[in-house]
Amino acid sequence: MTTFQELQMYKNFDELARDVLDLAKEILPDQLIYLSSLSDTQQVVLKLSNEDTNILVTEGMVINLNDTVCNRIDFDEKQPLIYEDMREESSLADIRNVFEDANIRSYLGIPISFMNGEKFGTLCAVNDEVSNFDTKSVQLLQRIVRMFSYYLDLERSVYRDPLTELYNRRYLANFFEDRAKDGGVLFFLDLDGFKKVNDIHGHDEGDLVLKEVALRLQNFADEHRDAFAIRLGGDEFVMHFPYLPSREDMGKQAEHVLDSLSTWDAAYQLSTSIGIATYPVNHTGDLKTLLKNADHALYDAKTAGKNTYKFFSL
């Protein structure tokens, strides 16, 4: 999932999003057009073609995904979803009142995906009246969306590790530059025994292990508000929590991470060690020092027998 924080790092995102909306408005001048991003539970309205409308959709609006029709779009086949008169659609009976309250009578939703098939969001056109979405207009909008997807893919590659698709060191550096004042926690992770996987089973097998580690870390991050996972390189990973839980809570989180990375095929004999470093609200230090501190704690975890965690202390 692409977060709003990540989009803010994209060069010229606002300008290009505005161009997309302006082009779409040229094709469907009578519609309110907007770009949105989707998660598993929410839709976020990113940009609107105009605010001067009686349709109750606003920039920054967060909508429960069950209260929108965007979750009914066929992203696999990349097919648009069209309701020219939502009052006539029996399949919308359970959420029709949501759209009536928002003064939406017609809807066109075009899926936006990355090249790997992962969902980004939608380009939507809505009206408070019945609409006729002709085939040519829809096809033109699909072409615009395809070009926008190419841009998203290029920007995304700057901040993602190509093997695991986790965030990379550049993303962490930019995040830290913008948000260091908020305080947070770094878990510096290193796989115990990974070199043997490469030596015995080969690098292709090692890459599969790294992808699986990334998947488990991402799943863990998804369970914690605003947390994210990073691959620094090799078998080194970082988890970032942008808040300061108690030392006890940090220990519990570290135990959960260790548990999630402890189950492997017997041939691998893998475990994980974690070094933990914190930085306070209004932090004035740099990321390099913080990573060095976490690395020192990681070394302590390794020398303590591995498959454990240690806190950095001066």
Descriptive overview:
Helix 2 packs antiparallel against helix 4 (135-158). The model has no long low-confidence stretch (mean pLDDT 93). It is built from nine helices and eleven strands. It has a six-stranded antiparallel sheet. The chain has a five-stranded mixed sheet with strand order 8-9-7-10-11, sandwiched between helices. With 314 residues, the protein is of the alpha+beta class. The radius of gyration is 23 Å and the shape is elongated.
Quantity of strands, as a count: 11
Taken in chain order, the helices and strands follow as HHEEEEHEEHHEHHEEHEHE
> End-to-end span in angstroms?
37 Å
Biggest sheet overview: 6 strands, antiparallel
Strand percentage lies at: 15-25%
Give the strand order of the largest sheet, numbering strands 1, 2, ... along the chain. Answer: 3-2-1-6-5-4
Mean pLDDT: 93
Count of DSSP helices? 9
Helix content: 25-40%
Task: Supply Rg.
Answer: 23 Å
State the shape.
Answer: elongated
What class, by secondary structure content? alpha+beta
Uncertain regions spanning at least 5 consecutive residues:
none
Topology:
Blueprint: H1 4-9, H2 13-27, E1 32-38, E2 42-48, E3 62-64, E4 81-83, H3 96-101, E5 106-113, E6 119-127, H4 135-158, H5 169-179, E7 184-192, H6 194-201, H7 203-222, E8 228-233, E9 236-241, H8 247-260, E10 271-279, H9 287-303, E11 309-311
Parallel strand pairs: 10-11
Antiparallel strand pairs: 1-2, 1-6, 2-3, 4-5, 5-6, 7-9, 7-10, 8-9
